[in-house]
Amino acid sequence: MCTEPCPFGGDVGAVSHRGAAGECRSAAKGSRMDTYVTVQGNLTADPIGRTTATGATVARLRIASNARRFDRETGEFRDADPLYIGVSCWRALAVNVLASLRKGDSVVVSGKLLFREYDDAQGVRQSRHEIDAVAVGPDLNRAPVDVRRRERPQQEAAAATAAPVADSAAQ
Questions:
Q1: Residue 91 in 3-state DSSP?
Q2: In 108-132, which positions are buried (b, 16+ CB within 10 angstroms) versus exposed (e)?
Q3: What values do phi and psi take at 158, rounded to 5?
Q4: For residue 106, which of 159, 145, 80 has the smallest C-alpha distance?
Q5: In whole angstroms, what is the distance from residue 103 CA to residue 89 CA?
Q6: What span, in angstroms and rounded, lies between the C-alpha atoms of 75 and 132?
Q7: DSSP classification of residue 127
Q8: What is the pLDDT of residues 79-104, one digit of tens each?
Q9: CB–CB of 86/126 below 8 Å?
């Protein structure tokens, strides 16, 4: 049972807001206080894919983004300091990212901004921001793109093309 008031409207000790595993959903992902961002930039390397122990596909990529500012004194554009940020993509998004994007591609990434802390190989505490991507796409300001839809599995395609049953009352 929870020992604190529930942000989902439950009382202290309530169990109605618990998930299937019995955990309090107030601590679950997707909290109302998440920060979502959109970043435009270029891939610094090819995306790297892996599969988790549960079978989920994960793609990791890193993007570099920097603003250009007009310097009135020199009459030229100058690059601002770059932002380098890691991005994680999961499941179908990861599969599509791995199949579509390469080093140097201009992309637009939207997702949840996360803060991670970890110990590096020397045992020094490090921290960094990352994006848990919800959407990743090419930046169409930089290049045209041919969009291909993924083929649906045969079961889905067969169900979608099955003839609808006629309503006997309409005849």
A1: helix
A2: bbebbeeeeeeeeeeeeeeeeebbe
A3: -65, -40
A4: 145
A5: 16
A6: 39
A7: E
A8: 999 999 999 999 999 999 999 999 99
A9: no
